[in-house]
Amino acid sequence: MKGFTPKDLVGLILNPLERVSETLERKLGLFSVIIISLASMLGTGLFVIPALAMVEMGGGVNPVGGIWLAFLLAGIVILPAAISKSELATAMPSSGGAYVYIEKSFGPQIGTVLGVGLWATTMFKSAFALLGFKAYLWVLEEMFDVKINIEIAALILLVLIVIINILGVKQIKKVQTPIVLVSVLFLAFICLKALLTVEMHWGNAFSTDAFGNGIVSVAETSAFVFVAYAGVTKIAAIGGEIKEPEKNIPTGLLASLVISSLIYVIFSIVMVSAVDPSQYVNEQGYPREDPVYVFVDSVAGQTFAQISAFLAITMLTGMALAGVMATSRFPFAMARDNLLPQSIENVHPKYNTPHLSIIFTGLAMGFCISFLPVKDIAKLASGFKIMIFIMINCCVIVLRTSSKSHSWYKPKWKSPFFPIIQILGILVSIWLIILMGLKAIIGAIATIIIGLVIYHSYGKKNVEYEITPWETFKLMFTNPNQAEKRRFYAAFHAADSTNKGHLNLNEFISAMYSLQLDPELNDKTLRRYFHSADLNSDGVVDVEEFLISIQGIIEEE
Protein backbone atom coordinates (compact mmCIF):
# COMPACT_ATOMS: atom_id res chain seq x y z
CA MET A 1 0.00 0.00 0.00
CA LYS A 2 1.18 3.47 -0.77
CA GLY A 3 2.60 5.45 2.13
CA PHE A 4 2.25 9.16 2.84
CA THR A 5 4.99 11.77 3.05
CA PRO A 6 4.77 14.90 5.24
CA LYS A 7 3.96 16.93 2.12
CA ASP A 8 0.84 14.81 1.58
CA LEU A 9 -0.45 15.38 5.11
CA VAL A 10 -0.46 19.12 5.68
CA GLY A 11 -3.53 20.05 7.69
CA LEU A 12 -3.74 16.82 9.69
CA ILE A 13 -2.00 15.99 12.99
CA LEU A 14 1.19 17.09 11.28
CA ASN A 15 0.00 20.66 11.75
CA PRO A 16 -1.80 20.36 15.12
CA LEU A 17 -2.27 24.03 15.88
CA GLU A 18 -3.86 26.47 13.49
CA ARG A 19 -1.67 29.53 13.44
CA VAL A 20 -3.67 32.73 13.42
CA SER A 21 -1.96 36.09 13.56
CA GLU A 22 -3.22 37.84 16.68
CA THR A 23 -2.37 41.45 15.98
CA LEU A 24 -5.51 42.77 17.69
CA GLU A 25 -5.57 43.51 21.42
CA ARG A 26 -7.93 41.56 23.73
CA LYS A 27 -9.87 44.32 25.52
CA LEU A 28 -13.48 43.16 25.83
CA GLY A 29 -14.97 41.39 28.87
CA LEU A 30 -18.31 39.59 29.33
CA PHE A 31 -20.35 42.74 29.93
CA SER A 32 -18.92 44.30 26.76
CA VAL A 33 -19.70 41.14 24.79
CA ILE A 34 -23.36 41.25 25.85
CA ILE A 35 -23.68 45.00 25.26
CA ILE A 36 -22.11 44.89 21.78
CA SER A 37 -24.26 41.89 20.86
CA LEU A 38 -27.46 43.58 22.07
CA ALA A 39 -26.52 46.82 20.35
CA SER A 40 -26.11 44.83 17.13
CA MET A 41 -29.67 43.51 17.43
CA LEU A 42 -32.06 45.72 19.32
CA GLY A 43 -31.79 48.78 17.09
CA THR A 44 -33.66 47.56 14.02
CA GLY A 45 -35.44 44.77 15.90
CA LEU A 46 -37.22 47.29 18.13
CA PHE A 47 -37.30 50.54 16.19
CA VAL A 48 -37.79 49.53 12.54
CA ILE A 49 -38.87 45.91 11.96
CA PRO A 50 -42.17 45.66 13.95
CA ALA A 51 -44.43 47.49 11.47
CA LEU A 52 -42.77 45.75 8.50
CA ALA A 53 -43.34 42.41 10.24
CA MET A 54 -47.01 43.21 10.95
CA VAL A 55 -47.65 43.79 7.25
CA GLU A 56 -45.59 40.72 6.31
CA MET A 57 -47.65 38.50 8.63
CA GLY A 58 -50.85 40.01 7.28
CA GLY A 59 -49.95 38.87 3.78
CA GLY A 60 -48.68 42.26 2.64
CA VAL A 61 -52.12 43.88 2.90
CA ASN A 62 -53.53 44.33 6.41
CA PRO A 63 -51.17 44.45 9.40
CA VAL A 64 -51.76 41.92 12.18
CA GLY A 65 -50.34 41.74 15.69
CA GLY A 66 -49.08 38.18 16.19
CA ILE A 67 -45.49 39.15 15.40
CA TRP A 68 -44.35 38.18 18.92
CA LEU A 69 -44.63 34.53 17.88
CA ALA A 70 -42.48 35.18 14.80
CA PHE A 71 -39.81 36.78 17.01
CA LEU A 72 -39.97 33.85 19.42
CA LEU A 73 -39.74 31.25 16.65
CA ALA A 74 -36.80 33.06 15.04
CA GLY A 75 -35.00 33.10 18.39
CA ILE A 76 -35.57 29.36 18.84
CA VAL A 77 -34.34 28.64 15.30
CA ILE A 78 -31.19 30.64 15.95
CA LEU A 79 -30.45 28.76 19.20
CA PRO A 80 -28.69 25.79 17.52
CA ALA A 81 -26.44 28.13 15.53
CA ALA A 82 -25.69 30.18 18.66
CA ILE A 83 -24.75 27.00 20.53
CA SER A 84 -22.64 25.76 17.62
CA LYS A 85 -20.93 29.10 17.25
CA SER A 86 -20.17 29.17 20.96
CA GLU A 87 -18.32 25.88 20.63
CA LEU A 88 -16.47 26.97 17.50
CA ALA A 89 -15.46 30.28 19.05
CA THR A 90 -13.79 28.58 22.01
CA ALA A 91 -11.74 26.44 19.63
CA MET A 92 -10.85 29.32 17.28
CA PRO A 93 -11.09 32.58 19.26
CA SER A 94 -9.75 34.82 16.51
CA SER A 95 -11.16 37.79 14.63
CA GLY A 96 -13.23 36.80 11.61
CA GLY A 97 -15.75 34.67 13.48
CA ALA A 98 -17.91 32.49 11.23
CA TYR A 99 -15.61 33.04 8.25
CA VAL A 100 -12.70 31.48 10.17
CA TYR A 101 -14.81 28.50 11.23
CA ILE A 102 -16.09 27.84 7.72
CA GLU A 103 -12.72 28.34 6.01
CA LYS A 104 -10.91 26.04 8.46
CA SER A 105 -13.66 23.41 8.11
CA PHE A 106 -14.35 23.45 4.37
CA GLY A 107 -11.27 25.03 2.81
CA PRO A 108 -10.47 28.32 1.07
CA GLN A 109 -12.90 28.06 -1.86
CA ILE A 110 -16.04 27.61 0.26
CA GLY A 111 -14.45 29.94 2.83
CA THR A 112 -14.19 32.71 0.25
CA VAL A 113 -17.80 32.30 -0.87
CA LEU A 114 -19.11 32.30 2.69
CA GLY A 115 -16.72 35.09 3.67
CA VAL A 116 -18.29 37.29 1.01
CA GLY A 117 -21.75 36.24 2.22
CA LEU A 118 -20.88 37.05 5.83
CA TRP A 119 -19.50 40.41 4.88
CA ALA A 120 -22.64 41.17 2.85
CA THR A 121 -24.94 40.00 5.66
CA THR A 122 -23.44 42.16 8.38
CA MET A 123 -22.99 45.07 6.01
CA PHE A 124 -26.67 44.92 4.98
CA LYS A 125 -27.70 44.73 8.64
CA SER A 126 -25.63 47.83 9.45
CA ALA A 127 -27.01 49.65 6.42
CA PHE A 128 -30.51 48.66 7.57
CA ALA A 129 -29.78 50.40 10.88
CA LEU A 130 -28.84 53.62 9.10
CA LEU A 131 -32.00 53.45 7.01
CA GLY A 132 -33.93 53.25 10.27
CA PHE A 133 -31.97 56.26 11.47
CA LYS A 134 -33.24 58.17 8.46
CA ALA A 135 -36.85 57.22 9.30
CA TYR A 136 -36.74 59.03 12.66
CA LEU A 137 -34.98 62.21 11.54
CA TRP A 138 -38.26 63.92 10.62
CA VAL A 139 -39.03 64.16 14.34
CA LEU A 140 -35.88 66.22 14.90
CA GLU A 141 -36.89 68.44 11.98
CA GLU A 142 -40.18 69.25 13.72
CA MET A 143 -38.62 69.63 17.16
CA PHE A 144 -36.00 72.16 16.09
CA ASP A 145 -37.91 73.62 13.14
CA VAL A 146 -35.04 72.95 10.75
CA LYS A 147 -34.84 71.29 7.38
CA ILE A 148 -32.50 68.28 7.36
CA ASN A 149 -31.28 66.65 4.19
CA ILE A 150 -31.88 63.11 5.40
CA GLU A 151 -29.66 61.42 2.80
CA ILE A 152 -26.68 63.67 3.54
CA ALA A 153 -27.24 63.36 7.31
CA ALA A 154 -27.12 59.56 7.08
CA LEU A 155 -23.92 59.67 5.02
CA ILE A 156 -22.29 62.10 7.46
CA LEU A 157 -23.19 59.78 10.31
CA LEU A 158 -21.66 56.87 8.38
CA VAL A 159 -18.39 58.80 8.05
CA LEU A 160 -18.36 59.41 11.82
CA ILE A 161 -19.04 55.71 12.46
CA VAL A 162 -16.10 54.73 10.27
CA ILE A 163 -13.83 57.14 12.15
CA ILE A 164 -14.93 55.83 15.56
CA ASN A 165 -14.31 52.25 14.40
CA ILE A 166 -10.79 53.16 13.31
CA LEU A 167 -10.16 54.70 16.76
CA GLY A 168 -10.87 51.31 18.36
CA VAL A 169 -13.36 49.05 20.14
CA LYS A 170 -12.87 50.64 23.56
CA GLN A 171 -14.38 53.84 22.22
CA ILE A 172 -17.28 51.84 20.75
CA LYS A 173 -18.01 50.22 24.12
CA LYS A 174 -18.06 53.61 25.85
CA VAL A 175 -20.62 54.89 23.34
CA GLN A 176 -22.81 51.78 23.23
CA THR A 177 -23.21 50.95 26.91
CA PRO A 178 -25.27 54.01 27.93
CA ILE A 179 -27.24 53.93 24.66
CA VAL A 180 -28.37 50.32 25.11
CA LEU A 181 -29.16 50.62 28.82
CA VAL A 182 -31.08 53.90 28.54
CA SER A 183 -33.08 52.72 25.51
CA VAL A 184 -34.12 49.43 27.10
CA LEU A 185 -35.07 51.10 30.39
CA PHE A 186 -37.06 53.81 28.57
CA LEU A 187 -39.04 51.27 26.54
CA ALA A 188 -39.63 49.18 29.67
CA PHE A 189 -41.06 52.30 31.36
CA ILE A 190 -43.35 52.99 28.36
CA CYS A 191 -44.59 49.38 28.35
CA LEU A 192 -45.34 49.60 32.07
CA LYS A 193 -47.16 52.90 31.55
CA ALA A 194 -49.22 51.30 28.78
CA LEU A 195 -50.18 48.38 31.04
CA LEU A 196 -51.28 50.75 33.81
CA THR A 197 -52.98 53.53 31.87
CA VAL A 198 -54.19 52.20 28.49
CA GLU A 199 -56.98 49.78 27.72
CA MET A 200 -55.16 46.71 26.42
CA HIS A 201 -56.64 44.69 23.55
CA TRP A 202 -54.87 41.35 24.03
CA GLY A 203 -56.78 39.84 21.12
CA ASN A 204 -54.58 41.90 18.78
CA ALA A 205 -51.65 39.69 19.86
CA PHE A 206 -53.26 36.36 20.71
CA SER A 207 -56.46 35.85 18.68
CA THR A 208 -56.57 33.54 15.67
CA ASP A 209 -56.74 36.54 13.31
CA ALA A 210 -53.50 37.91 14.81
CA PHE A 211 -51.45 35.28 12.95
CA GLY A 212 -52.54 35.93 9.37
CA ASN A 213 -52.80 32.62 7.52
CA GLY A 214 -51.60 30.61 10.50
CA ILE A 215 -48.36 28.68 10.74
CA VAL A 216 -47.26 29.58 7.20
CA SER A 217 -47.57 33.31 7.92
CA VAL A 218 -45.76 32.89 11.24
CA ALA A 219 -42.92 30.98 9.57
CA GLU A 220 -42.59 33.47 6.71
CA THR A 221 -42.52 36.36 9.16
CA SER A 222 -39.96 34.52 11.32
CA ALA A 223 -37.71 34.28 8.29
CA PHE A 224 -38.26 37.99 7.67
CA VAL A 225 -37.44 39.06 11.24
CA PHE A 226 -34.38 36.80 11.34
CA VAL A 227 -32.24 39.86 10.69
CA ALA A 228 -33.27 41.20 14.11
CA TYR A 229 -31.14 38.47 15.71
CA ALA A 230 -28.13 38.70 13.42
CA GLY A 231 -26.05 40.40 16.08
CA VAL A 232 -26.40 37.52 18.55
CA THR A 233 -23.52 35.70 16.85
CA LYS A 234 -21.81 38.76 15.44
CA ILE A 235 -19.65 39.12 18.52
CA ALA A 236 -17.66 36.04 17.47
CA ALA A 237 -16.39 38.08 14.52
CA ILE A 238 -14.22 40.03 16.98
CA GLY A 239 -13.18 36.94 18.96
CA GLY A 240 -9.56 38.07 18.73
CA GLU A 241 -10.39 41.10 20.88
CA ILE A 242 -12.27 39.30 23.70
CA LYS A 243 -10.67 38.46 27.04
CA GLU A 244 -11.05 34.86 28.25
CA PRO A 245 -12.87 33.85 25.03
CA GLU A 246 -13.49 30.27 26.21
CA LYS A 247 -15.79 31.66 28.93
CA ASN A 248 -16.98 35.04 27.70
CA ILE A 249 -18.00 34.10 24.15
CA PRO A 250 -20.45 31.24 24.88
CA THR A 251 -21.85 32.96 27.97
CA GLY A 252 -22.22 36.28 26.15
CA LEU A 253 -23.81 34.76 23.04
CA LEU A 254 -26.40 32.70 24.87
CA ALA A 255 -27.19 35.42 27.43
CA SER A 256 -27.72 38.05 24.73
CA LEU A 257 -29.98 35.66 22.76
CA VAL A 258 -32.21 35.05 25.79
CA ILE A 259 -32.31 38.74 26.72
CA SER A 260 -33.08 39.92 23.18
CA SER A 261 -35.80 37.26 22.69
CA LEU A 262 -37.56 38.32 25.89
CA ILE A 263 -37.35 42.00 24.94
CA TYR A 264 -38.73 41.39 21.42
CA VAL A 265 -41.59 39.18 22.58
CA ILE A 266 -42.71 41.36 25.50
CA PHE A 267 -42.36 44.65 23.63
CA SER A 268 -44.22 43.44 20.51
CA ILE A 269 -47.11 42.04 22.61
CA VAL A 270 -47.54 45.33 24.49
CA MET A 271 -47.04 47.34 21.32
CA VAL A 272 -49.93 45.77 19.38
CA SER A 273 -52.20 45.38 22.42
CA ALA A 274 -51.94 49.05 23.35
CA VAL A 275 -52.14 50.44 19.78
CA ASP A 276 -54.11 48.73 17.02
CA PRO A 277 -51.87 47.30 14.25
CA SER A 278 -53.71 49.43 11.67
CA GLN A 279 -52.06 52.51 13.22
CA TYR A 280 -48.61 51.28 12.16
CA VAL A 281 -49.23 51.85 8.45
CA ASN A 282 -49.38 55.21 6.68
CA GLU A 283 -52.20 56.63 4.56
CA GLN A 284 -50.88 54.84 1.47
CA GLY A 285 -51.02 51.50 3.28
CA TYR A 286 -47.25 51.10 3.61
CA PRO A 287 -45.72 50.07 6.95
CA ARG A 288 -44.24 52.96 8.89
CA GLU A 289 -40.51 52.81 9.46
CA ASP A 290 -40.86 54.63 12.80
CA PRO A 291 -43.26 52.29 14.68
CA VAL A 292 -41.86 53.10 18.14
CA TYR A 293 -42.74 56.77 17.66
CA VAL A 294 -46.33 55.77 16.84
CA PHE A 295 -46.52 53.52 19.91
CA VAL A 296 -45.02 55.98 22.39
CA ASP A 297 -47.03 58.91 21.02
CA SER A 298 -50.28 56.99 21.53
CA VAL A 299 -49.36 55.77 25.01
CA ALA A 300 -47.43 58.64 26.56
CA GLY A 301 -47.80 61.72 24.37
CA GLN A 302 -45.64 63.72 22.00
CA THR A 303 -42.86 64.64 24.44
CA PHE A 304 -42.09 61.02 25.21
CA ALA A 305 -42.47 60.18 21.52
CA GLN A 306 -39.80 62.75 20.70
CA ILE A 307 -37.54 61.20 23.33
CA SER A 308 -38.15 57.79 21.74
CA ALA A 309 -37.16 59.19 18.33
CA PHE A 310 -33.92 60.55 19.79
CA LEU A 311 -33.21 57.18 21.44
CA ALA A 312 -34.01 55.39 18.18
CA ILE A 313 -31.48 57.54 16.36
CA THR A 314 -28.80 56.91 18.98
CA MET A 315 -29.62 53.18 19.30
CA LEU A 316 -29.51 52.65 15.54
CA THR A 317 -26.27 54.58 15.43
CA GLY A 318 -24.86 52.30 18.10
CA MET A 319 -25.99 49.29 16.12
CA ALA A 320 -24.28 50.61 13.01
CA LEU A 321 -21.12 51.15 15.09
CA ALA A 322 -21.07 47.52 16.19
CA GLY A 323 -22.02 46.38 12.70
CA VAL A 324 -19.16 48.15 10.95
CA MET A 325 -16.77 46.77 13.57
CA ALA A 326 -17.87 43.17 13.00
CA THR A 327 -18.28 43.51 9.21
CA SER A 328 -14.78 44.88 8.70
CA ARG A 329 -13.25 41.81 10.40
CA PHE A 330 -14.31 39.46 7.59
CA PRO A 331 -12.11 41.02 4.85
CA PHE A 332 -9.38 41.32 7.50
CA ALA A 333 -9.54 37.57 8.20
CA MET A 334 -9.73 36.70 4.49
CA ALA A 335 -6.62 38.79 3.79
CA ARG A 336 -4.87 37.01 6.66
CA ASP A 337 -5.56 33.74 4.79
CA ASN A 338 -4.25 35.18 1.48
CA LEU A 339 -7.71 35.20 -0.11
CA LEU A 340 -7.66 39.01 -0.43
CA PRO A 341 -4.71 41.43 -0.88
CA GLN A 342 -2.44 41.50 2.17
CA SER A 343 -2.82 45.27 2.55
CA ILE A 344 -6.33 44.66 3.94
CA GLU A 345 -4.73 42.70 6.79
CA ASN A 346 -2.73 45.70 7.96
CA VAL A 347 -3.81 47.32 11.24
CA HIS A 348 -3.47 50.98 12.09
CA PRO A 349 -0.06 51.60 13.75
CA LYS A 350 -1.61 53.69 16.54
CA TYR A 351 -5.11 52.30 17.08
CA ASN A 352 -4.54 48.59 16.22
CA THR A 353 -7.68 48.38 14.05
CA PRO A 354 -8.02 47.10 10.44
CA HIS A 355 -8.54 50.60 9.03
CA LEU A 356 -8.54 49.74 5.31
CA SER A 357 -11.17 47.05 5.80
CA ILE A 358 -13.28 49.47 7.86
CA ILE A 359 -13.10 52.15 5.15
CA PHE A 360 -14.03 49.66 2.40
CA THR A 361 -17.02 48.47 4.45
CA GLY A 362 -18.13 52.07 5.01
CA LEU A 363 -18.10 52.79 1.29
CA ALA A 364 -20.27 49.74 0.57
CA MET A 365 -22.74 50.78 3.26
CA GLY A 366 -22.94 54.25 1.74
CA PHE A 367 -24.04 52.71 -1.55
CA CYS A 368 -26.72 50.60 0.17
CA ILE A 369 -28.33 53.39 2.17
CA SER A 370 -28.40 55.59 -0.92
CA PHE A 371 -29.95 53.15 -3.40
CA LEU A 372 -31.62 50.15 -1.73
CA PRO A 373 -35.13 50.06 -0.13
CA VAL A 374 -35.56 49.07 3.53
CA LYS A 375 -37.61 45.90 3.06
CA ASP A 376 -35.31 44.46 0.40
CA ILE A 377 -32.29 45.01 2.63
CA ALA A 378 -34.06 43.26 5.52
CA LYS A 379 -34.90 40.25 3.35
CA LEU A 380 -31.42 40.00 1.86
CA ALA A 381 -29.78 40.25 5.27
CA SER A 382 -32.13 37.62 6.75
CA GLY A 383 -31.66 35.25 3.82
CA PHE A 384 -27.86 35.47 3.95
CA LYS A 385 -27.86 34.98 7.71
CA ILE A 386 -29.98 31.84 7.57
CA MET A 387 -27.56 30.33 5.04
CA ILE A 388 -24.60 31.19 7.25
CA PHE A 389 -26.30 29.55 10.24
CA ILE A 390 -26.78 26.36 8.20
CA MET A 391 -23.03 26.28 7.52
CA ILE A 392 -22.18 27.00 11.17
CA ASN A 393 -24.14 23.95 12.27
CA CYS A 394 -22.45 21.91 9.52
CA CYS A 395 -19.03 23.06 10.78
CA VAL A 396 -19.56 21.53 14.21
CA ILE A 397 -20.69 18.21 12.70
CA VAL A 398 -17.70 18.08 10.35
CA LEU A 399 -15.12 19.15 12.94
CA ARG A 400 -16.36 16.86 15.72
CA THR A 401 -16.45 13.88 13.33
CA SER A 402 -12.97 14.49 11.94
CA SER A 403 -11.31 15.88 15.08
CA LYS A 404 -9.08 12.83 15.59
CA SER A 405 -7.38 13.63 12.29
CA HIS A 406 -7.43 17.38 12.87
CA SER A 407 -6.36 17.52 16.49
CA TRP A 408 -6.10 21.32 16.52
CA TYR A 409 -9.88 21.34 17.05
CA LYS A 410 -10.09 21.35 20.83
CA PRO A 411 -13.06 23.49 21.95
CA LYS A 412 -13.04 24.46 25.61
CA TRP A 413 -16.87 24.44 25.59
CA LYS A 414 -18.88 21.81 23.70
CA SER A 415 -22.40 21.87 22.34
CA PRO A 416 -24.84 19.69 24.30
CA PHE A 417 -27.02 17.10 22.52
CA PHE A 418 -24.60 16.78 19.58
CA PRO A 419 -25.45 16.22 16.72
CA ILE A 420 -29.23 16.36 17.24
CA ILE A 421 -29.32 20.09 17.89
CA GLN A 422 -27.19 20.84 14.81
CA ILE A 423 -29.30 18.65 12.51
CA LEU A 424 -32.53 20.26 13.73
CA GLY A 425 -31.00 23.72 13.20
CA ILE A 426 -30.05 22.82 9.62
CA LEU A 427 -33.46 21.39 8.70
CA VAL A 428 -35.49 24.28 10.15
CA SER A 429 -33.17 26.86 8.56
CA ILE A 430 -33.60 25.25 5.13
CA TRP A 431 -37.38 25.40 5.60
CA LEU A 432 -37.23 29.10 6.46
CA ILE A 433 -35.04 30.02 3.52
CA ILE A 434 -37.47 28.28 1.14
CA LEU A 435 -40.27 30.38 2.65
CA MET A 436 -38.29 33.58 2.01
CA GLY A 437 -38.78 33.23 -1.71
CA LEU A 438 -36.95 34.31 -4.84
CA LYS A 439 -35.06 37.36 -3.55
CA ALA A 440 -33.19 35.35 -0.95
CA ILE A 441 -32.27 32.72 -3.54
CA ILE A 442 -31.08 35.35 -6.04
CA GLY A 443 -28.99 36.97 -3.32
CA ALA A 444 -27.43 33.61 -2.47
CA ILE A 445 -26.57 32.88 -6.11
CA ALA A 446 -25.03 36.34 -6.53
CA THR A 447 -22.91 35.83 -3.42
CA ILE A 448 -21.69 32.43 -4.64
CA ILE A 449 -20.71 33.85 -8.03
CA ILE A 450 -18.83 36.81 -6.51
CA GLY A 451 -17.05 34.56 -4.02
CA LEU A 452 -15.97 32.12 -6.73
CA VAL A 453 -14.69 34.95 -8.93
CA ILE A 454 -12.61 36.33 -6.04
CA TYR A 455 -11.21 32.91 -5.17
CA HIS A 456 -10.29 31.85 -8.71
CA SER A 457 -8.94 35.26 -9.74
CA TYR A 458 -6.87 35.91 -6.60
CA GLY A 459 -7.14 33.51 -3.68
CA LYS A 460 -6.40 30.23 -5.50
CA LYS A 461 -2.97 31.52 -6.58
CA ASN A 462 -1.99 32.60 -3.07
CA VAL A 463 -3.17 29.86 -0.69
CA GLU A 464 -1.31 26.68 0.14
CA TYR A 465 -3.20 23.41 -0.06
CA GLU A 466 -4.11 21.68 3.20
CA ILE A 467 -6.29 18.66 3.91
CA THR A 468 -9.49 20.10 5.35
CA PRO A 469 -11.78 18.50 7.93
CA TRP A 470 -14.44 18.39 5.21
CA GLU A 471 -12.18 16.20 3.01
CA THR A 472 -11.51 13.94 5.97
CA PHE A 473 -15.22 13.82 6.80
CA LYS A 474 -16.06 12.67 3.27
CA LEU A 475 -13.21 10.13 3.22
CA MET A 476 -14.40 8.63 6.51
CA PHE A 477 -17.63 7.65 4.79
CA THR A 478 -16.29 6.71 1.35
CA ASN A 479 -13.01 5.00 2.37
CA PRO A 480 -12.65 4.79 6.15
CA ASN A 481 -9.54 2.55 5.96
CA GLN A 482 -7.72 5.12 3.86
CA ALA A 483 -8.75 7.90 6.26
CA GLU A 484 -7.36 5.98 9.24
CA LYS A 485 -4.14 5.06 7.45
CA ARG A 486 -3.60 8.69 6.50
CA ARG A 487 -4.11 9.70 10.13
CA PHE A 488 -1.56 7.13 11.36
CA TYR A 489 1.06 8.38 8.92
CA ALA A 490 0.33 11.97 9.97
CA ALA A 491 0.90 11.11 13.64
CA PHE A 492 4.20 9.40 12.78
CA HIS A 493 5.56 12.31 10.74
CA ALA A 494 4.38 14.87 13.29
CA ALA A 495 6.29 13.06 16.05
CA ASP A 496 9.39 12.56 13.87
CA SER A 497 10.80 15.96 14.82
CA THR A 498 14.25 15.27 13.31
CA ASN A 499 12.86 13.89 10.00
CA LYS A 500 15.03 10.78 10.28
CA GLY A 501 12.26 8.37 9.37
CA HIS A 502 12.04 6.75 12.78
CA LEU A 503 10.80 7.47 16.30
CA ASN A 504 12.53 7.12 19.64
CA LEU A 505 10.57 6.16 22.77
CA ASN A 506 9.42 9.70 23.66
CA GLU A 507 8.41 10.44 20.07
CA PHE A 508 6.53 7.15 19.87
CA ILE A 509 4.58 7.93 23.05
CA SER A 510 3.77 11.43 21.77
CA ALA A 511 2.49 10.03 18.45
CA MET A 512 0.30 7.44 20.17
CA TYR A 513 -1.29 10.03 22.45
CA SER A 514 -2.07 12.25 19.45
CA LEU A 515 -4.01 9.38 17.84
CA GLN A 516 -6.38 9.07 20.83
CA LEU A 517 -6.71 5.33 20.25
CA ASP A 518 -7.61 4.37 23.82
CA PRO A 519 -8.14 6.67 26.82
CA GLU A 520 -6.75 3.90 29.06
CA LEU A 521 -3.30 4.04 27.44
CA ASN A 522 -0.48 5.31 29.65
CA ASP A 523 3.29 5.74 29.41
CA LYS A 524 3.98 2.31 30.92
CA THR A 525 1.72 0.49 28.46
CA LEU A 526 3.04 2.46 25.49
CA ARG A 527 6.62 1.70 26.50
CA ARG A 528 5.78 -2.01 26.32
CA TYR A 529 4.30 -1.55 22.84
CA PHE A 530 7.39 0.38 21.75
CA HIS A 531 9.79 -2.35 22.75
CA SER A 532 7.58 -5.01 21.18
CA ALA A 533 7.67 -3.09 17.89
CA ASP A 534 11.44 -2.50 18.07
CA LEU A 535 12.32 -5.93 16.71
CA ASN A 536 16.05 -5.30 16.19
CA SER A 537 16.40 -3.53 19.57
CA ASP A 538 18.08 -0.44 18.08
CA GLY A 539 16.00 1.96 20.22
CA VAL A 540 13.85 3.32 17.36
CA VAL A 541 10.84 2.20 15.30
CA ASP A 542 10.26 2.96 11.64
CA VAL A 543 6.87 3.70 10.08
CA GLU A 544 6.03 0.06 9.30
CA GLU A 545 6.82 -0.99 12.88
CA PHE A 546 4.75 1.95 14.09
CA LEU A 547 1.75 0.79 12.06
CA ILE A 548 2.12 -2.78 13.38
CA SER A 549 2.10 -1.52 16.97
CA ILE A 550 -1.09 0.47 16.27
CA GLN A 551 -2.74 -2.65 14.92
CA GLY A 552 -1.77 -4.46 18.13
CA ILE A 553 -3.39 -1.78 20.28
CA ILE A 554 -6.57 -1.86 18.19
CA GLU A 555 -6.82 -5.66 18.39
CA GLU A 556 -6.36 -5.64 22.17
CA GLU A 557 -9.23 -3.17 22.53
Would you kindly provide a written description of the structure presented here, covering whatever features stand out?
The protein starts with 29 loop residues before the first helix and ends with a helix. It has 21 helices and two strands. Strands 1-2 form a two-stranded antiparallel sheet. The model is unreliable at 15-23 (pLDDT under 50). The chain has two domains: 6-10 and 472-556, Orthogonal Bundle (Recoverin, domain 1), CATH 1.10.238; 30-139 and 172-341 and 373-458, Amino acid/polyamine transporter I (Up-down Bundle). Helix 3 crosses helix 14 (374-402). The chain is an all-alpha fold and 557 residues long. The chain has helices at residues 30-47, 49-57, 67-91, 98-106, 108-144, 150-167, 169-197, 203-206, 215-225, 245-274, 291-300, 302-336, 355-371, 374-402, 420-436, 438-462, 469-478, 480-495, 505-515, 523-533, 543-556, and strands at residues 502-503, 541-542.
Write the SSE topology.
Layout: H1 30-47, H2 49-57, H3 67-91, H4 98-106, H5 108-144, H6 150-167, H7 169-197, H8 203-206, H9 215-225, H10 245-274, H11 291-300, H12 302-336, H13 355-371, H14 374-402, H15 420-436, H16 438-462, H17 469-478, H18 480-495, E1 502-503, H19 505-515, H20 523-533, E2 541-542, H21 543-556
Antiparallel strand pairs: 1-2
Helix pairs in contact: 1-5, 1-7, 1-10, 1-12, 2-9, 3-9, 3-10, 3-14, 3-15, 4-5, 4-14, 5-6, 5-12, 5-13, 5-14, 5-16, 6-7, 6-12, 6-13, 7-10, 7-12, 9-15, 11-12, 12-13, 14-15, 14-16, 14-17, 17-18, 18-19, 19-20, 20-21
- The average pLDDT value, as a whole number, equals 84
Note the main sheet.
2 strands, antiparallel
Poorly predicted runs: 15-23
Reading off the top of the CATH hierarchy, the class of the largest domain is best stated as Mainly Alpha
**Shape type:** elongated
The number of strands is 2
| Widest beta sheet: strand line-up | 1-2
For the termini, the CA-CA separation is 25 Å
Examine the coordinates and then state which fold CATH places here, giving the name of the CATH topology of the largest domain.
Amino acid/polyamine transporter I
Helix share of residues? 55-70%
The helix-and-strand class reads mainly alpha
CATH superfamily of the largest domain: Amino acid/polyamine transporter I
Strand content: under 5%
